[in-house]
C-alpha cells in the first residue's frame, strides 16, 4: 500500500503515474507467490480499491485485475516458488500481459471505442523492467526485515 501511496503522491516525476500498474502487479505477484499469508485476498482487494480511488480509474478495474494476479500467484506457488528468477520473471510477464490485456479490453468496453494500444504496451514494458528491481528489494525484505522467524 505504501508503494501505491508513493506513486500517487505529487512528486512531479515524469511518467510517475505510469509506474503504478506495473509496480502494483509486481508487488501482488511476488508476495502472493513467496509469502501468501502476507498478501491475502482481502488485502489485495483493499489495495485494488486504493489504487482505483487514487488513480481515478474505473471502479473495480484494479480490484479485478489484482485479484486475478493474486490468484495466479497463489495457484502457481508450489511449482513456481522453487524455480529460478528467470522462470518466475517470465511467468510474471505472461501474467502481466494477460492482466494488461484485460485492462485494455475493459477500458475499450467502458469507453465504447477502440483505444490505441501504445499505452498498454508501454505499461507492459514498464512492468517487465520494474519486476527485477522490485523483486530484488522484496527478496531482501523477505529474507531479512519481513522474515517472521527472525522475530
Give Rg in angstroms: 15 Å
Structural class determined from secondary elements = mainly alpha
| SSE string | HHHHHHH
Record field, number of beta strands: 0
Number of helices in the DSSP assignment: 7
What percent of residues adopt helix (DSSP H or I)?
over 70%
DSSP strand (E) fraction? Answer: under 5%
Count of domain modules: 1
Q: What general outline do the C-alpha atoms trace?
A: globular
Main sheet specs: none
Distance between the termini: 23 Å
Low-confidence stretches: none
Average pLDDT number? 89
Structure keywords:
151 residues, mainly alpha, 7 helices
Question: What does the model show?
Answer:
- The protein has about 150 residues and is mainly alpha-helical.
- It has one domain (about 20-135).
- It is built from 7 helices and no strands.
- Helix 2 (about 20-35) packs parallel to helix 4 (about 60-75).
- The protein is globular and about 45 Å long.
Concise synopsis of the structure shown:
The chain contains seven helices and no strands. The chain has helices spanning 2-8, 19-34, 41-55, 61-75, 77-80, 85-111, 118-143.
Q: SSE layout and pairings?
A:
Layout: H1 2-8, H2 19-34, H3 41-55, H4 61-75, H5 77-80, H6 85-111, H7 118-143
